[in-house]
Structures are given as structure tokens and as C-alpha cells.
Design goal:
α4 links the parallel β1 and β2. The chain has a seven-stranded mixed beta sheet with strand order 3-2-1-4-5-7-6, with helices on both faces. The chain is globular, with a radius of gyration of 25 Å. It has a single domain, classed as Rossmann fold, CATH 3.40.50.150. By secondary structure, it is α/β, with parallel strands linked by helices.
Length: 276
């Protein structure tokens, strides 16, 4: 009898432990969800404030899209090397806000044709599209897997863009040549090399916005001949500091004449013998 009672008591205690443990897990889950929601809200507020500081206003829909894009980026980055930056603040500052600084240099209006050369994981193209969904954006890259992510992200964000899988030096000799109002490119190559990749896409009267790091002004000094040869003229530069302390330089190059048909050259020539 005593053995039977002991078994019953043990069974009851086990049930109680399972219930308590379950409640603990539920409480922990609820706490985690609450913390996540707070973090997401904090990130949206942080991004909105940072962008306001650089002169870019984001509405509620844009902030929601940035939140979704951040989650898509982090999730995909688990299986595809898109970025080394995956913390929420880093994404907000070093990817989103940094991409949007192009709007300090160029004014994008409805129907403007914009090409992002070497978009990689969608930067600066997707942030610019979120902030200015009325533009006609083309994002070009030579890596198919990254472009698949870019295309999927644009669709899930409820936006529209043209995604082109090609090398810039080849696409710049085809039907996309001199057909864009703006070309933008971020952290792709040295300025004298980057110009030969990007300026052939820009129509006469259009603008190439190069988004460079701390050495941007130094690179520009070595690229002035390249810019002139390709039909461009430097109109404006701006240096500033991101909230994380990173130094940035924006370079505005106006297309004043047609690019000679021999440019862009093959990639090996561009890299080994830049126009300097």
C-alpha cells in the first residue's frame, strides 16, 4: 500500500513539475517576444531619427518596410554571405542610413531612372526604393545568388524594380547604355575604376553619385582625368560622419558629353590600366 501511495505521489509531483516548467517556458517566450517587439520599435525610432538628421524623412510605411527588409537580410545571411553586419543598430546605421545619404547629393523624383551598379545585397538600391518608391530602379550585379535575394526582397516589400544579372562592363555596352538619369554605387571599387563601370550607364545631363569612404576625396584626385575622358565633370563633393563615427564622402559627377564607344573596356583592362 505504501509503495502504491509513493508511486501516486511521485506521479503527482512529476505532473506539477511539468506544469510549472511549462509555465516558465511560456513566460520566457512571452518575455522574449516582448523584448523583440521593443527592439524592433526602438530600431524603427532610431532609423527615423538618424535619417531625419541627414535630411531624409521616412513615413510609417517606409519604416515598416525597413523593418521587414532587415529581418529578410538577417535570415538570408544565415545561408548566404550578404553582409558581416547583422546587429539591428549596425543594419540601421551602416546599411540603411548610409545608403540613404545619397539623397543628400541627388534629388530623386517620380519616374527618374536609377541604376545601382554592383548592388550586392541590395545596397543602396533597396533603401533608396523604400524611401522613394516612385522611381524606376534597376539593380545590377554579377552574382546570381545575391540577385535572387534582392528580387525576392523587392517582391516581399511590395515594391517594383528591374533586377539585372550581368557584369557592369558588359551591360554598359548594351541596351542599358546612357539610358539612366542617375547611377549610384557604394563601396565597389576605387573611384577611377568605378567611373568606367558607372558613367557609361548615365545619359548626357544625368548624374553619377559615388558613395565612398574616408579616402573618397583622395580617390577623386586620382580620377579627374578618368571622369573627363568618360564625358563627366565633378560638380560637388560632401564629407560627413555617420552616427557610428564612420567617415563618408559623396561625389556628384555630371555627365556632360557622350562616353566614347570604346568604354567601358574589359574588366581586366579597367583594373590593370585605369584611366589616370
Amino acid at each position: 500500500m505504501q509503495v502504491f501511495i509513493g508511486i501516486i505521489l511521485g506521479f503527482i509531483i512529476a505532473i506539477i513539475v511539468m506544469i510549472v516548467t511549462g509555465f516558465g517556458q511560456d513566460y520566457e517566450l512571452i518575455t522574449t517576444i516582448d523584448e523583440l517587439q521593443k527592439e524592433l520599435k526602438d530600431n524603427k525610432d532610431r532609423l527615423k531619427n538618424i535619417c531625419a538628421d541627414i535630411g531624409v524623412d521616412l513615413d510609417a510605411q517606409a519604416l515598416e518596410r525597413f523593418e521587414l527588409f532587415a529581418s529578410l537580410l538577417v535570415e538570408k545571411n544565415k545561408v548566404l554571405n550578404l553582409t558581416a553586419i547583422t546587429d539591428p543598430e549596425g543594419i540601421a546605421v551602416k546599411h540603411f542610413a548610409d545608403s540613404l545619404t545619397a539623397l543628400r547629393m541627388i534629388e530623386l523624383n517620380e519616374g527618374d531612372r536609377v541604376i545601382d551598379v554592383g548592388t550586392g545585397g541590395g545596397f543602396p538600391g533597396i533603401p533608396l526604393l523604400i524611401a522613394r518608391p516612385e522611381i524606376e530602379l534597376t539593380m545590377l550585379d554579377s552574382t546570381g545568388k545575391k540577385l535572387a535575394f534582392v528580387s525576392q526582397s523587392v517582391e516581399e516589400l511590395g515594391l517594383s524594380a528591374n533586377v539585372v544579372h550581368a557584369r557592369a562592363e558588359e551591360a554598359g555596352r548594351g541596351e542599358l547604355r546612357e539610358s539612366f538619369d542617375f547611377a549610384v554605387s557604394r563601396a565597389v571599387a576605387a573611384m577611377n575604376v568605378l567611373c568606367e563601370y558607372c558613367l557609361p550607364f548615365v545619359r548626357v545631363g544625368g548624374t553619377f553619385c559615388a558613395m565612398k569612404g574616408a579616402k573618397g576625396s583622395e580617390e577623386l584626385g586620382c580620377a579627374e582625368k578618368t571622369i573627363a575622358v568618360l564625358g563627366g565633370e565633378t560638380k560637388k563633393t560632401e564629407s560627413f560622419i555617420l552616427p557610428d563615427g564612420g567617415e563618408r564622402v559623396l561625389i556628384n559627377v555630371k555627365k556632360i558629353s557622350h562616353t566614347a564607344t570604346k568604354y567601358p573596356r574589359p574588366s581586366a583592362q579597367i583594373s590593370k590600366k585605369p584611366l589616370i
